[in-house]
Amino acid sequence: MAFSFSKLIIFGPQGAGKGTQTEFLTKRLGVPAVSSGHLLRLEMGQDTKLGHFLKTQMSTGELISDEIINLLIKNYLLGPECVRGFLLDGFPRTVDQAKFLATFAAVDCILKINISDAEAVWRLSGRRTCPSCGMVYHQESKPPQKAGSCDRCRVELIKRSDDTPEAIQKRLKIYYTETVLAVVYYQTQSIPILEINGEQTIEAVRQEIFEKLGL
Ligand code: AP5
Ligand code: MG
After folding, report:
1. Is 128 a catalytic residue?
2. pLDDT tens by residue, 153-171
3. Are 54 and 43 in contact (CB under 8 A)?
4. Is 127 among the residues known to form the active site?
5. Whole-prediction pTM value?
6. Closest residue CA from atom 23 of ligand 1
7. Ligand 1 atom at minimum distance from 93 CA
């Protein structure tokens, strides 16, 4: 069956592959990916008061305040890039954020990728990220063509400051105590929720998502 979703949110615990699958989906759907984490990391790279604050706060695995994230996302979604739709990764993460989003944008589909905590820890421990474009790699499951360098920008890959054992545990706890409640909120709004088995190869996850979206 063919669907025509254009305003989607991708949920899943840390390391589920949201960023990885977003790369495929954004090309096929023709709408931009909006990663709250990537937007925050771009701010974090600035030599500003906000940038320094984010650097400290995000490395602990704690959420950033709604005041900061809501403004950042709203500005982006109401901008010219998102007139045809969007694929949100990392926002909303709480029921309050979901309710805030509903004040200016309607969502038409939810993707929820599921993986175990053990898989999440393994994936995040070997993840490397491009600080420039946000492209995600893994030392074993998705290595770059040239070790340590982004295939797209040729920039040196980094290990994220929140990919430490302590911060990973904190982030997973927040997902299961707060973010899953945002998914429940969408259930009550009768928005379609497509459950995806994230514990398959990257290509098999991509196929399952495309099939369930009718792409
Ligand atoms: P964010 O950047 O959103 O991070 P996250 O939610 O912790 O999710 P991840 O990026 O870790 O996981 P992912 O699912 O994208 O996995 P990936 O594709 O990289 O947020 C970071 C921080 O920003 C938050 O902690 C918070 O402080 C702040 N923040 C963001 N949004 C916020 C909000 N709304 N409110 C408040 N604060 C906010 O894949 C992981 C690894 O696995 C990679 O190495 C990849 O290559 C590999 N991999 C992927 N799929 C597979 C597969 N199928 N098999 C094997 N390996 C795979
Ligand atoms: Mg991500």
Report:
1. no
2. 999 999 999 999 999 999 9
3. yes
4. yes
5. 0.95
6. 37
7. 34
